[in-house]
Design brief:
The protein is of the alpha+beta class and 250 residues long. The chain has two domains: 125 residues, no CATH class; 60 residues, no CATH class. It has six helices and 14 strands. A six-stranded mixed beta sheet has the order 4-7-6-5-1-8. Strand 9 and strand 10 form a beta hairpin. The chain is extended. Bound molecules: zinc ion (2 copies). One zinc ion binds next to helix 6. One zinc ion binds next to loops.
Length: 250
């Protein structure tokens, strides 16, 4: 990961700043977005930066912002001026729950104080192991080493005989109801507040398994089921019948 030591917030002339900003650096009251704007450029980055997937902004030797890098681009050239050779990092601001954020934002900088604002650190949180079980280390954010997902999948298909058998098995054990993919969050019928209880079934969008208030408004609005819920929640029986009829008509 790239570790960038940002200085304290300072005003700059938007006409002079390569990104047209009026301030750069770290300010304690900045929102993550403002901090990103003020620190994602412009930097002199070496070759290694282009192989890195994360950037950590530090100030006073503490991590203040973590970014998953999408791309690194040369700073836009302004007319009549020579290119500075500096770069801008574009990416997603990481938040609570991401291993890089959790390990480094608010924590001591992983590298020693140095003169150059740009440093590098090989964080253990940047790696995870392949989900196929081979033990290979891969960058965090990926599930499989290249090609291992296909191998793992086809190895399982083969165990059941072939694709036909695999599909028959899936439909029998899990059921094949891709359009029964909506959750009506359990709510208190009096005031429509969520009860906090998990939903018990998934429904088809447009089924009438929701509740109405006295004015006929839906009090538990539908939302799409998560992948987890698509696996763990049973499809509603009535919705299954409607869905089966609908597909028979096609
Ligand atoms: Zn693997
Ligand atoms: Zn239903």
């Amino acid at each position: 990961m790239i570790v960038i030591g940002a200085g304290a917030e300072q005003s700059v002339d938007p006409a002079e700043d390569e990104l047209g900003r009026d301030r750069i650096g770290y300010g304690p009251t900045m929102s993550p977005m403002a901090l990103y704007d003020a620190t994602h450029g412009t930097w002199h980055l070496g070759e290694r930066a282009h192989r890195e997937r994360f950037a950590l902004i530090t100030h006073d030797e503490r991590g203040v912002l973590a970014v998953a890098i999408d791309r690194i681009e040369p700073a836009p050239a302004s007319p009549g001026r020579q290119s500075s050779g500096r770069s801008v990092i574009h990416g997603q601001i990481l938040a609570n729950g991401h291993p890089i954020y959790d390990a480094h934002v608010g924590a001591r900088s992983p590298i020693a104080r140095q003169r150059n604002p740009i440093g590098y650190f090989d964080a253990p949180e940047e790696r995870t192991v392949c989900a196929c079980g081979c033990g290979e280390e891969i960058p965090v954010g990926k599930h499989f080493a290249s090609g291992h997902d296909q191998t793992a999948l086809h190895e399982r298909v083969r165990q059941l005989g072939g694709v036909v058998d695999f599909i028959a098995w899936f439909d029998r054990v899990h059921g094949n109801w891709p359009d029964i993919n909506v959750i009506y969050e359990p709510v208190n019928l009096k005031d429509g507040t969520p009860t906090g209880a998990p939903a018990r079934a998934r429904h088809r969008l447009g089924c009438d398994h929701f509740y109405l208030d006295e004015d006929g408004r839906v009090i538990n609005r539908p939302r799409l089921a998560s992948a987890e819920e698509m696996t763990s929640l049973r499809p509603c029986r009535t919705c299954q019948n409607v869905s089966a009829k609908a597909s028979a008509r096609q």
